[in-house]
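REQUEST FORM: STRUCTURE PREDICTION
Request ID: SP-0412
Submitted by: Lab K.M.
Chain count: 1
Length (residues): 252
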Amino acid sequence: MHNGLHHGLHNLGHTRSVRRQSHLIQTPDTFIRTQIPGTTKASVIVHVSPAMGAAFTQYSVEFEVGGVLGAAAGERFVYVLEGSVAVDAGQHKHALGKGGYAYIPQGVEQRVSAVEKAQAVVIEQPYRAVKGIGAPDFFVGHEPEVAAQALMGDEDLQVRSLLPDTMAFDFAVNTMTYQPGGALSMVEIHVMEHGLLMLEGGGIYRLDDDWHPVTAGDFIWMAPYCPQWFGAIGKTPAKYLIYKDWNRHPLR
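STATUS: Completed
RESULT:
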């Protein structure tokens, strides 16, 4: 068979990507690049949004040099995967390198631009205010400098909480690192939903009654109450970035 034709047909419609009512696995071979208003010299890959049933939106941005991200539709969290991104929000100006991140409150005029070719993860949602508790302020950090905590005393599972644990924040974003062979001690079922991007390594994710191999670059959405479990497989640690809604009454 001609090499070009063989290359075009070898997958024969196969992908590890899966769409279910309770979860979504989106692998890089199925990513579609698009645009959002105000974005220039950058491509956007929307991983999940209310169109899927999520209460938040998560997308990746691939910036060319000088690329600019359009305005936010709510509060925004930006995490840099590669390269360098400048964040200008109100009185705050920061250059974020790999592992750098920023929380930008809803309604703050902002400019997120690429200092060099870069990739970033963006999470947005409408802010859910609580009477008597003020909205959170702008926040910036660097993931490698955040202190890691063992999950439920298991030293093979290390969690870094990237945002302050205060009621002002209505979501949390963490990284979680598993040593090879490390696994969650239980199947979790809870009201929070998740957006998860695999950063390094891989393993097996149980979602509902399905078992999925996952690896760096994959995105996973988990709906509320989706049974979930992960175990790391391979000779290198597995690491992911994970969002969850947090600190709010379930009737809201």
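NOTES: The two ends are 58 Å apart (CA to CA).
Reviewed by: T.R.
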